[in-house]
Amino acid sequence: GTQLTEIRRGDLAWDLEVRLPDNDRAARADLNAFEIALPDGGTVPLSSIVTIDEARGWGGVTRRNGLRTLTVAADVDGRIGNADAITAQLAEGFLPDLVTTTPGLDFEVGGQAANS
């Protein structure tokens, strides 16, 4: 799982983690079937909207200015989608909505996306 935050009630503290049930993370192929929620309330399997390529690399949650930071990067096939439009849609709709419903969460668009 991935630790999202720590919840405190007085002197007690709990780590809040997100993880799929054991039976949904038995194989890498399970990621292809992971259901993504759509704005209309429906769902689609992740494999219907992305191509997942396995590659070696460094990953993980890092810290910047004392805050846990997760960097998300993607290569968009220009014949299928527009990276600027996808980034704008995330920055103007999905991410602000997520921040509103998730205390302590913030986002920043950086790199090439911030310069376009």
Automatic annotation (TrEMBL):
- The organism sits in which domain of life? Bacteria
- Tell me which stretches of the chain form a coiled coil: none
Q: Can you provide one Gene Ontology molecular function annotated for this UniProt record?
A: xenobiotic transmembrane transporter activity
One GO CC annotation, please? plasma membrane
Q: Which SUPFAM superfamilies match?
A: Multidrug efflux transporter AcrB TolC docking domain, DN and DC subdomains
- Tell me the protein's name: Efflux RND transporter permease subunit
Native source species: Thalassobius vesicularis
